[in-house]
Amino acid sequence: MEIKWEEGFKISADIENNTVHISANKEGLKSLSNILLSLSEEKNGSHIHLDEYNSLEDGSTELIIEKVDD
User: Fold this and answer.
1) Less crowded by CB within 10 Å, the N or C end of the chain?
2) Buried b vs exposed e over 19-57: b needs ≥16 C-beta within 10 Å?
3) Is 31 contained in some domain?
């Protein structure tokens, strides 16, 4: 899966009171939309892992986005 990351993106993910909270700057939101569009074209079960070691800001909670059956 090819993902287009916007230059200067910042994305973080946290869990607050049993709620997933995703924060992103403009470039981060565009990057997330690029991820979702790319993932929508993949087969069911395809997924992407994002964490502080892979694209998210330091201290972020791991985020897994998966395509499931239509």
Assistant:
1) C
2) eeebebeeebbebbebbeebbeeeeeeeebebeeeebbe
3) yes
Alpha-carbon span 67 to 70, nearest angstrom: 9
For residue 27, what are the domain limits? 11-66
Question: Which of 49, 59, 64 lies closest to 12, judged by CA?
Answer: 59
Helix (H, G, I), strand (E, B) or coil at 22: strand
What pLDDT digit, counting tens, does each position of 3-42 carry? 899 999 999 999 999 999 999 999 999 999 999 999 999 9
Find where tokens 């981060």 sit: 28
Number of domain units in the chain: 1
Residue 58 lies in a domain: yes
